[in-house]
Design brief:
- By secondary structure, this protein is mainly alpha-helical.
- The chain is built from four helices and two strands.
- Helix 2 packs antiparallel against helix 3 (about 110-145).
- The longest helix has about 40 residues, at about 110-145.
- The two termini are about 30 Å apart.
Length: about 180
């Protein structure tokens, strides 16, 4: 049983479904354009970011311990990272567009819940991503390095495998945020 005044707001107006779909399409097109522009920007910065991040990894033998065994896989990894960074940096705008789209149809209590979920999810997800890349993956590489090196065998690390592991975890966090 709904309480009087809680099921509708005096400023509610009825609009056809086509109007809602047109508004959603416009908002989505703006976000997709932003993701495309961000991807172009990240494409120019990705090599420097990878170099800085690789320098933070605790690799035993230093120079020469990292290899790229498949140039195609490296290219694929670079573009995957560009896509992830583009989507991640566009998330605040995506959340804002989602908020603006949903706001007119929500009750005040629901608006508060949605805004806290969007802001909290962005903050929590970003914290997990940054912590994972700056602390988690280097700690995992260090742990794997300490596990049990074989005597007489030099250590070589596949850069693509390390990045793909970190990117997979990042995509998982991003998809979990988008699903909430």
């Amino acid at each position: 049983m709904a309480l009087v005044g809680e099921s509708s707001v005096p400023t509610d107006s009825s609009q056809p479904v086509v109007a809602h779909l047109a508004e959603a399409s416009t908002r989505l097109q703006r976000v997709l354009l932003a993701i495309l522009l961000l991807a172009i920007g990240w494409a120019f910065l990705i090599d420097e970011m990878f170099a800085l991040w690789l320098a933070s990894l605790p690799l035993a033998e230093g120079e020469g311990t990292l290899s790229i065994y498949s140039p195609y896989a490296w290219l694929d990894t670079r573009w995957t990272a560009v896509g992830l960074l583009s989507l991640w940096t566009a998330l605040p705008w995506l959340a804002w567009e989602a908020w603006r789209f949903a706001r007119p149809g929500l009750l005040p209590r629901e608006r508060g819940w949605l805004s806290s979920m969007l802001a909290g999810g962005l903050l929590f997800g970003s914290t997990i991503l940054i912590t994972g890349w700056l602390w988690g993956v280097p700690a995992l590489v260090d742990w794997a390095q300490q596990a049990s090196p074989v005597e007489g065998v030099g250590l070589q690390y596949d850069v693509v495998a390390i990045f793909q592991m970190a990117l997979a975890a990042s995509w998982f966090v991003l998809i979990a945020f988008l699903l909430t």
